[in-house]
Amino acid sequence: MSGGLEIRGLRVVFDGFTAVDGVDLDVRPGDLRFLIGPNGAGKTTLVDAVTGLVRAEGSVRFGGEELLGRSVHRIARSGIGRTFQTATVFEELTVLQNLDIAAGAGRSMWTMLRRRRDVPVPVARALETIGLTDVADSPAGTLAHGQKQWLEIGMLLVQDVRLLLLDEPVAGMSHDERQATGELLERISEERTVVVIEHDMDFLRSFARSVSVLHAGRVLSEGTVTEVQADPRVQEVYLGHAPEVPSRGADDGPDDGDGGAAVGAGAASAGDTAADAAVQEA
Ligand SMILES: Nc1ncnc2c1ncn2[C@@H]1O[C@H](COP(=O)(O)OP(=O)(O)O)[C@@H](O)[C@H]1O
Ligand SMILES: [Mg+2]
Q1: Is 14 in the pocket of ligand 1 (CB under 6 A)?
Q2: Whose CA is nearest to atom 26 of ligand 1?
């Protein structure tokens, strides 16, 4: 099993605006971690920092190795791969050629573009895993939206990426495509560590093993789907108001009273953070 991801005190500042504000995050090997949070929470920036696309402070270790300060290229070679919110496949090339190019660092363009009879084992295995064996010889441009995302994931698999960071892979997918993607991620995470940025709550409930909620550059809540959904701070951020407190009467027991107070405090602090972010963004 591959290594785990260990993030400590991660900070990313853009021209005085703090997009990631002291994030600690641990993802165990084989986890299928969902990273959720409203737009602008810093999810993509966090992935950018881990993959070396933006400068960051703090520490990001994968399998014990420090990644911060390394080049994008070296981080990729350490077994870390990501997808972007829009799929980036070569539309004119076939599915197989796309996988071949991803797998083929060091091989000549000619070798890679030649129609091959002998599909290398890792490529054949990736085709199987992403369910595109039947369309291996079709141009990637003819694939359905969901299939293009799977191809991108396949391109990470043939590079033997040990940590996959997927930025909103099911955006724009049909229900069936989402289901297939979730099952694909479950299979992949048996051998690799997977972090998925996602908004869709049904998708999250079906497939997340653990969840981190980001808000205004910080980890607002973390745990199982059930734990995170029950967290009043999360409900506040997503629904824009504190949840209904079932019994708030004056004659409630002390426990209920404490619960109500905790909800209020959580909501207030979440509200303040959102207000801060709005001020900083303006
Ligand atoms: N290159 C950049 N320069 C300045 N601000 C940025 C840049 N990238 C992202 N941001 C800001 O950082 C915040 C977090 O953005 P992002 O990580 O894309 O959020 P998310 O992916 O959670 O929607 C947003 O307020 C965004 O406007
Ligand atoms: Mg984003």
Answers
A1: yes
A2: 40
Q: Which ligand is nearest to the CA of 281?
A: 1
Could you report the per-residue pLDDT of 29-43, keeping only the tens digit for each? 889 999 999 999 999
For ligand 1, whether the C-beta of 42 sits within 6 Å is yes
Angle at 4 between CA 170 and CA 147, to 5 degrees: 20
Angstrom distance (rounded) from CA 226 to CA 139: 42
Supply the range of the domain harboring residue 27.
5-230
The reply to whether 273 and 182 lie within a common domain is no
CA of 20 to the centre of ligand 1 (A): 9
For residue 40 and ligand 1, the question of a CB distance below 6 A is answered with: yes
Domain check: are 208 and 77 in the same one? yes
Total domains in the chain come to: 2
The pLDDT tens digits of the residues spanning 119-156 come to 888 899 999 999 999 999 999 999 999 999 999 999 99
* Closest residue to atom 24 of ligand 1, CA basis: 40
The one-letter amino acid at 71: S
Quote the strand ranges of the chain, DSSP E: 5-14, 17-27, 32-36, 57-62, 65-66, 80-83, 163-167, 193-197, 210-215, 218-223
Q: Which atom of ligand 1 is nearest to the CA of 54?
A: 1
Q: Are residues 245 and 221 in the same domain?
A: no
- One domain, residues 214 and 264: no
Looking at the fold, whether 140 and 223 belong to one and the same domain comes out as yes
Distance from C-alpha of 25 to C-alpha of 266, rounded to nearest angstrom = 21
Residues 19 and 70 in one domain: yes
Non-local (6+) Cβ contacts of 170 within 8 A are 149, 177, 178, 181, 182, 198, 200, 203
Residues of the chain with pLDDT under 50: 106, 247-282
